[in-house]
């Protein structure tokens, strides 16, 4: 399932967060585990603060990551272990939360921030990504 989020910057449609849900189940996985992201679409003007939410039903503890994917490029890791920042993650990005609610915040949105955002939670056994 793929939902595109539209971000209107400078009056032009930019893609900001989209959601992909891919589920891999191992033979003994807990079928009730899930990761969901909201809202589906996000529109922002330059300089605004944008918050993206990710809800992990159970079992992710602190093993949650955020990624940004731009057209024609592979996903780029922004944060791991909830709030551990990759060295090239812009300083106006932050990540916080604890199971089950996690948030990626972009303070002062810039045109370069447009893209598809994903959260990924690692569970005992199966991996759920969004």
UniProtKB/TrEMBL annotation:
- Pfam families, alphabetized: V-set
- InterPro entries, sorted: Ig-like_dom (IPR007110), Ig-like_dom_sf (IPR036179), Ig-like_fold (IPR013783), Ig_sub (IPR003599), Ig_V-set (IPR013106), IgV_Light_Chain (IPR050150)
**Coiled coil stretches, renumbered:** none
* Region forming the signal peptide: 1-31
The highest taxon in the source lineage is Eukaryota
Q: Which UniProt keywords apply?
A: Signal
Task: Please list the residue ranges annotated as the Ig-like domain.
Answer: 27-119
Per its record, how is this protein called by name? Ig-like domain-containing protein
**Organism the protein comes from:** Neolamprologus brichardi (Fairy cichlid)
